Amino acid sequence: MTPSWGEHAPDESTTRRDARAETLEARLARFALAVARREDLWRPIVKHDPRQRWHARLADLGDVEIWLLGWTREQEVELHDHGGSAGAFAVAEGELHEHFTTRGALGPLRRAVCRTGGVRAFGPDRVHHVTNVARTPATSVHVYAPPLTAMRFYDLAPGNAPQAVRTELVLQEEEVLR
Question: What DSSP string describes the chain?
């Protein structure tokens, strides 16, 4: 898989920062959904391990990367951000539940369900918890720009903004599947 990110890059002629971020999120969403719809790209390699959520980097395109995740019942990623990257995830099969907010925001988490064929896009300030609560496995495609270097994990006390409690580095030398 060697798609060119160049045709999906944000329009640099846009002068308003918010417009650029919105454009990037929309483009990441379209990209994630396009890969999720290409079952021939991910079906032969996806795994659904009941002991742990499975993941693999599908492609590193320089300014964007693509990950494939396999989820079984009750597997999750606790409340986290993407270390300053914008992103999107598309559900290729199954369904995922997302509880989310914006870094620094007060109030309860919002909730969304993303089913097969659905996509969720977010900016670099998104903090979310994602889980598979269904009885059947789920497969999702995640796209990040710029590529992930770290993920921060958070605690959330009622009435407070999410508080970062640890950071995990994303190893750049992780094998990219070819």
Answer: ----SGGGS--TT---HHHHHHHHHHHHHHHHHHHHH-HHHHTTT----TTS-EEEEEEE-SS-EEEEEEE-TT-EEEEE--TT-EEEEEEEESEEEEEEEETT--SPPEEEEEETT-EEEE-TTEEEEEE--SSS-EEEEEEEESPP-EEEEEE--TTS--EEEEEEEPPTTSPBP-
Q: Whole-prediction pTM value?
A: 0.84
Residues in the chain: 178
Task: Compute the average pLDDT of residues 51-56.
Answer: 95
Instruction: Give yes or no for residue 63 having a pLDDT over 80.
Output: yes
Our measurement of the distance from residue 51's CA atom to the centroid of its chain's CA atoms, rounded to an integer in Å, reads 21
Percentage with pLDDT > 70 across the chain: 84
Tokens of 111: 């909730």
Q: Which residue has the higher pLDDT, 22 or 37?
A: 37
For CA atoms 59, 133, 116, 120, give the dihedral sign.
Answer: negative
Please tell me the predicted confidence (pLDDT) of residue 13.
39
All structural domains of the chain: 12-169 (2.60.120.10)
